[in-house]
Design goal:
The protein is an alpha/beta fold. It is built from 5 helices and 7 strands, in the order βαβαββαβββαα.
């Protein structure tokens, strides 16, 4: 089975992606390859940050790698928290970030938002980008105990429940990361096996 590095230390993201790629590729986390660096995310877009991560792993470990950057974009907050989603409140604490968003959304009637993921596969000296997004709305109160981050306040369009109320299987059918991963998988399947 071919191996690919996923440039993440987030165990939840690694599990989600591992489930999506199971049976096709063995996905290695940064920890699995001995990388305990906090790879700088100094880009101004999801795509730039994803590319920085995958290129860093290739340059330091000589392994093909894909990195992603994801975030919540809320219309009423000018697409914030965006690339700062993981540290929007000034902390990397999920609950503090979620509470900060809810505080900013108090009294706001436009609750439209989307989750976006951009994956960058660095392979053979080239970047390949795959994007996924899912539209939804921001709930006024967190609901559900599954998932992570902003999942308890994000209700995808067409559903009466939040991401945090969905099983992993349900979320993997519709999530922004799943959409981008499916594009990556289609691309990888089209390559000759080596």
């Amino acid at each position: 089975m071919r191996e690919l590095v996923f440039a993440t230390n987030n165990q939840y993201k690694a599990e989600e992606v591992g489930n999506l790629l199971s049976g096709q590729y063995k996905v290695l986390s940064l920890k699995a390859i001995g990388c305990d660096e906090d790879i700088p995310e100094t880009g101004s877009t999801f795509a730039e940050n994803a590319a920085l991560k995958s290129k860093y792993v290739f340059e330091h470990f000589s392994l093909n790698c894909f990195g992603d950057d994801s975030g919540l974009q809320i219309d009423a907050l000018n697409d914030e928290p965006g690339i700062f989603s993981a540290r929007y409140s000034g902390s990397r604490n999920d609950k503090e970030n979620l509470d900060f968003v809810l505080q900013k959304m108090l009294g706001v009637s436009n609750r439209n938002a989307r989750f976006t993921t951009v994956i960058c596969l660095y392979q053979g000296g080239q970047n390949y980008f795959f994007e996924g997004s899912v539209e939804g709305t921001i709930r006024a109160v967190p609901v559900g105990d599954k998932g992570f981050g902003y999942d308890p306040i994000f209700q995808p369009n067409g559903y009466a429940i939040t991401f945090a109320e969905m099983t992993t299987e349900q979320k993997n059918q519709i999530s922004h990361r799943a959409i981008a991963m499916k594009k990556l998988i289609t691309f990888l399947k089209g390559q000759p096996s080596s």
